[in-house]
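ok so i was messing around last nite and threw this chain in just to see what happens. nothing serious, just curious
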Amino acid sequence: MLQNSTTVTQVVEFYLRQIEDNRHLNAYVEIFDQEARDRAALLDQQREEGTPLQPLHGVIIGIKDVLCYEGHYVSAASNMLHDFRAPYSATCIQRLTDAGAIIIGRLNCDEFAMGSSNEHSAFGPVLNALDNDRVPGGSSGGSAVAVQANLCMVSLGSDTGGSVRQPADFCGIVGLKPSYGRISRYGLIAYASSFDQVGIFSRNLADAAKLLEIMAGADNFDSTSATTPVPAYSSAAETTGGPKKFAYFKEAVEHPALDPEIRAALLEYFGKLRQAGHQVDAVDFPLLDYIVPTYYVLTTAEASSNLSRYDGVRYGHQSTAPAESLAEFYAHNRSEGFGREVKRRIMLGSFVLSAGYYDAYFTKAQQVRKQLFDRTQLIFNDFDAILSPTAPSPAFRFGEKSQDPVAMYLEDIYTVFANLTGIPAVSLPFFWHSNGMPFGLQVMTNRFEELSLFQIAEAMTRIAR
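result:
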């Protein structure tokens, strides 16, 4: 072994100790400790033998409990899938392990990725490492806390309407949602198929760029994966270029739900961008108040359809309660297997898809989504990026919004826009609130312009320092 060098085995043991010392955070639902040790030993042996190192040699990664990893349990943090083992690996997981990464465990989340606080998990809530009385955000709360508390190097989440960016904002780390289709969804348990995208949590942009470079690209197992070429994000992301033209939605910054300190910090930062030679302009966006209703009409409809497969016959929880009919058998299985928030969204989705309301709700929401897409393209004809808050408030306390679904859903007011339009977005951890919690700034570019997103975000990070 090379002298004065750290072995992968030593790194794995460090993170296993970190995880053990921070079990109270409830970030992990399962740790692949022996498997991680065995893989570390193999990687160390290969290095000692002179085998060329792979791009992610010994990188320690945690994965959200909605991503399939062959032979391992995957439950979507739900009693519905409490004993299900993945028969194959998600394409993104396979590409990471092929590149030398070590998957150290699966991470807690809101059940079936439905939530903004990680309070809706069969494994219990995840605690924010900075303040254990506050939520870490959701649905990928465990993935965010794992990076925040140094329980892995980077982690994967899924982002349907902000489930990577909002917890990254609450935890003070980088959270990236790529363009829809940039990373294959094969092996990702579906919430809303036309919105879902695998996302990345990291401590810096360079790590996120490297992971995206490895995972991105077309996949024959996913017909919605993009065939657009994948640039070398990691080698070019630091080329920041010249002055940029930024837009922000006037209605977003002036929205009454936005915390005054967040508004003040953003406006002050916009001034720094202007001083650095960039153009920052407010644009009118009257559709802002339609974004959250549109998102929840469409995603609950898709969820209602996607989750209909969990009936306890081929897979899913099977109740021991006696049933006198097939309908009663299904009702027992689904009533016991699904949690309250999932049931709420299934019922909402079933309602908007019903014969009497389909045109009034679902069709109208699709029309609004098309208007959002068209308006977004017009904005990107004149601007390089769109800036916005990531969330309307810093991390809130447990129970503060759990009794008010509408207030909880409004937590997504700034993040769902990127999912409705399919554009990439990143939350950057720039600021601190007077309550001691971090909050970030969201940057969005046009579809498949992640390279530009990294370059702009890197330049913005230098200005924020």
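not much to say yet. DSSP finds 16 helices and eleven strands in the chain.
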